[in-house]
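$ ./design --mode recover --in tokens.txt
reading tokens...
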């Protein structure tokens, strides 16, 4: 029973972490298979017509399509990484704009840590304290 729970947990973790890579890779393989199948059908058509010019054009189009598919795949992953890096850089700039620097902490900050901003605050205040301060100001 625990073995099945562990497997399910592992598969869920892998799916959540690598979903875009898995889906895009499967789409690339599907595209490569589709391009090969279309090329094979076109070669059969050219063989029935006994036209070698059609066969040579088919090879050119096939390799152009394969190269374009791989380049689109690589460009997608390259820009996906750049967008993710720019988002994490924007989060660091927001924390520094609030007057909080990451050099004030003794612990290194993790980009995925939702409590990192709380750890670098000098004084923690509850919601009730904030409401009391607002009432005192008015």
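writing sequence...
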């Amino acid at each position: 029973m625990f073995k099945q729970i562990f497997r399910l947990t592992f598969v869920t973790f892998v799916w959540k972490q690598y979903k875009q890579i898995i889906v895009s890779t499967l789409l690339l393989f599907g595209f490569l298979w589709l391009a090969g199948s279309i090329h094979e059908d076109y070669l059969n058509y050219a063989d029935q017509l006994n036209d070698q010019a059609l066969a040579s054009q088919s090879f050119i189009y096939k390799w152009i399509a394969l190269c374009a598919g791989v380049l689109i795949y690589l460009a997608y992953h390259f820009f996906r990484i750049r967008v993710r890096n720019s988002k994490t850089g924007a989060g660091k700039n927001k924390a520094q704009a609030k007057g909080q620097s990451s050099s004030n902490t003794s612990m290194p900050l993790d980009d995925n840590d939702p409590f990192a901003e709380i750890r670098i605050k000098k004084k923690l205040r509850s919601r009730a304290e904030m409401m009391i301060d607002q009432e005192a100001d008015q």
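exit 0
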